[in-house]
Amino acid sequence: MEAEFDTVATWTAEVVAGLDLADRIPAACRGSGSPGALHWLLEHLEPEPGQTFFDCGAGVGGPAAFAARETGARPLLTDPEPGACRAARALFGLPALQAASELPIATGVIVAGWSLGVLCTVTDQPAYLAELRRVLRPGARFGLIVYCATHPGELRLKPPEGNNFPTVEHLDDLLHGASLRVRTSGWTDHFAAFPDGWEDVMSSVQDELERRHGKDARWRTAEEQSDRMGSLLAAGELRGRMLVVEPE
Ligand SMILES: C[S@@+](CC[C@H](N)C(=O)[O-])C[C@H]1O[C@@H](n2cnc3c(N)ncnc32)[C@H](O)[C@@H]1O
């Protein structure tokens, strides 16, 4: 995961820095589904202009920059990987704190935010959710994208290293255990369409990364991880669940 979320984050920032601001967002969304899914979440989260919008596990900052552009909210990012934090600061000028599941945020201060494609990469999922719950203010709304296994037991294809995909039932138990109530939910595959140009940016950045680093073992490791994820989704072994939760 270090190759994927730290080294490749740094390389991505180097390539994406050469793009216009509008094209940086598609290139810097990793694991967060499509803009349709992000819009769906924002419509339910309703962040206000100027309000702090917390992105936990923000990666290189594309989704947070998208939220800022669409709503005028002010993102605050955390990610355990230093390369990801540096990338988000450099590409979007966003405040990014290096942190995993112990958040450098006071209790009960966050009113809106999200954490996209993160839970399945976390070893201690109950602790991660409890920490998210801790920072939420009563009445807050928080968005999640969680890749869920569509059946219990072993996946039929090899999963990416270090990932742990809950079933929907297990996810519901985890959320209940963290005193987070589900307000609404959906599936990322209902928002699979991309606007014109979005996928072109993603594939040209991918081609450039391949050209620069294709022979590097860390690139090949990260690509294998990403290919395994793609195969699991294509085979229907995994689905992306979108949730809006609130503290109980
Ligand atoms: C699949 S990426 C998603 C990045 C970003 N949310 C997006 O959608 O573009 C997962 C991210 O979770 C971060 N992460 C891993 N463990 C974490 C933890 N305990 N707390 C917060 N983030 C974590 C990784 O460093 C990585 O950047």
From TrEMBL:
Keyword Methyltransferase: yes
Entry keyword annotation includes Magnesium: no
Database matches in CDD domains: AdoMet_MTases
Protein keywords: Methyltransferase, Transferase
InterPro entries per record: Methyltransf_11, SAM-dependent_MTases_sf
Pfam families listed in its UniProt record: Methyltransf_11 (PF08241)
Domain of life, source organism: Bacteria
Residue span(s) of domain Methyltransferase type: 55-142
GO biological process, any: methylation
A GO MF label: S-adenosylmethionine-dependent methyltransferase activity
Protein name: SAM-dependent methyltransferase
Natural source organism: Intrasporangium chromatireducens Q5-1
